Description:
Layout: E1 5-12, E2 21-26, E3 29-34, E4 46-50, E5 53-58, H1 60-73, H2 76-82
Antiparallel strand pairs: 1-2, 1-4, 2-3, 4-5
Amino acid sequence: MCLGIPGRILEIGQAEGVARSGRVDFNGIVKDVSLAFVPDAGVGDYVVVHVGFAIARVDEAEASRVFRYIDEIGELKELEDEGR
């Protein structure tokens, strides 16, 4: 199943436009993500990430709610496995 996962932006690289990227924390799992589609997102913001691209901003309450559901169904394990 493919779904968007919320994460919090930890840092943003120097590049702009289509090359804009940053490090995003997915409840303890940190990945490099393209931020090209969310030019208004900044450090500390929560974004929904799908296949390596942040596609929308979300608030912290929504991100927390989604992480509870993901934890319940065990999907976070897939993110951990991808990092290996």
